[in-house]
Amino acid sequence: MKVSVDADTCTGCELCVDTCPDVFEMKDGVAAAKSPVVPPSAEDACRDAAGNCPVEAIKIEE
After folding, report:
1. Residue 31 forms beta bridges with which residues?
2. DSSP string spanning 2-48?
3. Minimal CA–CA distance to 55: which of 34, 31, 23?
4. CA distances from 55 to 5, 12, 34, 58 (A)
5. What 3-state class would DSSP assign to 39?
């Protein structure tokens, strides 16, 4: 599974970082993926973060 964050869309609410800190971090006020490849142990939390993003800035590639 791969993940990315559209920095132009992200509002910096930090919900993804709170939901899945193994995958997401804040950089310059917006969220970013620490790595494009999601560890298998974090896939469910990553999906939750993407589903809860209020502006749909997180894109997942299965």
Report:
1. 26
2. EEEE-TTT-----HHHHH-TTTEEEETTEEEESSSBPPGGGHHHHHH
3. 31
4. 11, 10, 20, 8
5. coil
The reply to whether the predicted model has a pTM over 0.90 is yes
Please state, in angstroms and rounded to a whole number, the distance separating the CA atoms of residues 40 and 14. 22
Domains present along the chain, CATH in parentheses: 2-61 (3.30.70.20)
pLDDT tens, residue order, the chain (62 aa): 999 999 999 999 999 999 999 999 999 999 999 999 999 999 999 999 999 999 999 999 99
Q: Which residues pair with 61 in a beta bridge?
A: 2
> What span, in angstroms and rounded, lies between the C-alpha atoms of 28 and 40?
27
